Amino acid sequence: MTLALIANPSAGGRKGARVIPQVEKRLRLYGLDYRIFITQQHAHALDIARRLTPANYDGIVSIGGDGTNFHLLNGLLKYHDPDRLPPLGIIPVGSGNSFARDLNIRTTKDGLRALIRGRTRPVDVCSFDRGGQPWYFVNLAGFGFVTDVAQTAHHLKRVGDFSYVMGVFHRMLNLRFHHMELEIDGRRINGDNCFVEFCNSRYTGGKMLMAPHAKIDDGWFDVVVAGPISRGALMATFPKIFSGTHGQHPAVRFYRARTASVRTDPPKPLLPDGELFGSTPTRVAIHPQWVRYFS
Ligand SMILES: Nc1ncnc2c1ncn2[C@@H]1O[C@H](COP(=O)(O)OP(=O)(O)OP(=O)(O)O)[C@@H](O)[C@H]1O
């Protein structure tokens, strides 16, 4: 078995740089052959994936967080035939690693174990439109309050998982709503909004259970719509996201969808798989079981 490892040394506040040699040592110990590609800068994983010959590998593995996996996935799906890709793997060394949780991969050991065991499962992929081109995500993409939080968290990366929580409280003090026209499988939802998330998998920011009912292989994505909510209610509701009970507040609604389109005033930046990339208006669609992941 030969693996392609696409490794981000800067992920997880440079945890990647520490973990990469340990992963290599383990793989050699288990007799797994590999070729390693180290990302040198932002979005480099996309370019590495574009140049790979997938047929030469039995697995293509991201060593990083959700962002590294996002760039790798896009390089693979944009430049290669999804039907001919080998299974994908994740060794989570990012700050959040939200998508890997739905594969039951929470630690480096879990990621390695999944590769060594060789068991895979099918995973749906979501696409969104940016400048007339499809881009892909497997975790979630959102806009509004969530994007503002991530922007703040990004500046606080050194404090790890907790940076998202700090981001939430910082942005709560500056709470703003935006006008939105959302269409979910032909159903229109208009009005002022706090945030929207299109969720293929359940978690965001590491441990926040944004879409508790999302399944990564059911052919649907879940849409979480948070309408206008007072600062006090948001503060009371926010902690509930860790147990996935935030839907108890009437401002928070859940939908399941195969397609969605959205327009906002003003245009809002998007946050696919934790990366600031693209903006509204956009269109989201599901591609059932397009890829397989080691799990
Ligand atoms: N050598 C590098 N130097 C700086 N940035 C890099 C490098 N290689 C990749 N990147 C960028 O680092 C960013 C963060 O990576 P990633 O999301 O994997 O880690 P994280 O932010 O710690 O984890 P998570 O998204 O799970 O919270 C990505 O946008 C990626 O393109």
TrEMBL record:
Keywords: ATP-binding, Kinase, Nucleotide-binding, Transferase. GO terms for molecular function: ATP binding; kinase activity. InterPro entries: ATP-NAD_kinase_N, Diacylglycerol/lipid_kinase, Diacylglycerol_kinase_cat_dom, Lipid_Phosphate_FormReg, NAD/diacylglycerol_kinase_sf, YegS/DAGK_C. GO terms for biological process: phospholipid biosynthetic process. It comes from the Bacteria. Residues 1-132 form the DAGKc domain. PROSITE patterns: DAGK. Transmembrane segments: none annotated. Gene3D superfamilies: 2.60.200.40, Probable inorganic polyphosphate/atp-NAD kinase, domain 1. This is Lipid kinase. It comes from Desulfosarcina alkanivorans. The lineage of its organism: Bacteria, Pseudomonadati, Thermodesulfobacteriota, Desulfobacteria, Desulfobacterales.
